[in-house]
Amino acid sequence: MSSLFPIAIISAVVIVLLLKIYFGNNRAKREPLPTNVVRLHQFNACRPLPSCSPFVMKLETYLRMAKIKYCNDFSMTFGKRKGKIPWIELNGEEIEDTNFIMDHLNEFFQVDLDKDLSDEDRAKAHALKRMMEENTRWASITNVRFQNSAHISHTLKAANLPSYLYLIFRYVLAGKVHKDMKKHGIGRHSTEEIQSIAIGDLKAVSAVLGHKKYMFGDQPSTIDAAMFGIISNIIYGNPPESSLTLYVKDYLPNLNSYVERIKSNFWPDWEQRCVH
Question: SUPFAM superfamilies, from UniProt (predicted)?
Answer without folding.
Answer: GST C-terminal domain-like (SSF47616), Thioredoxin-like (SSF52833)
